[in-house]
Design brief:
This protein has 203 residues and is an alpha+beta fold. The chain contains six helices and eight strands; from the N terminus they run αββαββααββαββα. β3 (62-72) and β4 form a beta hairpin.
């Protein structure tokens, strides 16, 4: 099986999973923040794991976000990140206040980032579960802030071996004229990606 050679039907299924998850996440975020937050998913792909760091801007680029572990029938780890340079705009969308960097985070800021990660993970996992009939159970998110290469290294150390491929969901957050792009990564265990794609009809 070559994951990079998915059929149009499987790619459409992945896109639908991402779009449904994004719609549910936008609704949940709007409810949490008591204001309208739009979310789009311009691109969804399955990429070789060694390309994940490059998508995040290279091994030495600073990123912020959250990560968690997913247990169940198809174990995986999940990582949500935005570039450090976009932190200020992202917090403006979420909390209505700008911050120069992650170093300005207070307890409320950290809590919101973790909750956003939790909402995104829950929305995408629910959508994935709907399409595959697999059961997923996410752990409590932790805050991530470091060079992207270090974060990936920490995730691998914490959660052990992962597949050679990762689901990559580009996520754009919109509030009026403010727009921030981040990335949502599902890093499956060695057999999890095969199981998920098999349930989606990949032969």
């Amino acid at each position: 099986m070559r994951f990079e050679d998915l059929s149009p039907i499987q790619l459409d299924a992945l896109k639908e999973i991402g779009n449904i998850g994004a719609g549910n996440a936008a609704t949940a975020l709007s409810t949490l923040l008591n204001k309208r937050i739009d979310m789009t998913v311009p691109k969804i792909d399955i990429l070789p794991f060694n390309e994940v760091v490059e998508i995040m801007g290279g091994a030495e680029s600073l990123v912020a976000g959250g990560y968690l572990e997913v247990k169940g029938e198809a174990p995986m780890s999940i990582l949500f990140v935005i570039p450090e340079k976009s932190v200020s705009l992202f917090m403006k969308i979420l909390l209505g206040k700008e911050m120069k960097s992650i170093e300005d985070f207070d307890e409320m800021s950290e809590s919101v980032i973790k909750e956003v990660t939790n909402i995104l993970a829950g929305s995408y996992l629910n959508s994935l579960g709907m399409f595959t009939n697999l059961v997923f159970e996410a752990t409590v998110p932790a805050l991530a802030y470091d060079m992207s290469g270090a974060i990936i290294g920490n995730v691998l150390q914490l959660y052990g071996e992962v597949s050679d491929y990762s689901f990559v969901i580009e996520s754009v957050f919109l509030e009026e004229e403010v727009e921030v792009k981040g990335h949502f990564f599902l890093l499956p265990g060695p057999d999890s990606l095969y199981k998920i794609l098999e349930r989606l009809g990949v032969s």
